[in-house]
Amino acid sequence: MKIRNVIHRGLKRFIERNDASGLSPPVVEKVRNIVTFLQEMEDVQELRDIPGWKAHQLTGDRKGTWTLTVTRNWRITFGIDRGKKEVFDLDYEDYH
Description:
Blueprint: E1 2-3, H1 9-17, H2 28-40, E2 56-57, E3 66-69, E4 74-81, E5 86-94
Parallel strand pairs: 1-5
Antiparallel strand pairs: 2-3, 3-4, 4-5
């Protein structure tokens, strides 16, 4: 899937320039794996193939937003436009 837009500046810099200065060093490899996976996946059901990421959709005011666990408090969050096969509003956020 194509990544339409990235919200977190450090994550955007990492994706566009391979500059990890906006991310904590211990998470760089995991974030790289997640971003690569998102770009290569063809169907949203593939998200559930990696149990360690605890992929699920949020509810309430963030209904439809997907979340993947990076660390205990940090998550990669995003929406999926199935029609265009795009990931949008990709973010790296302190979830709790």
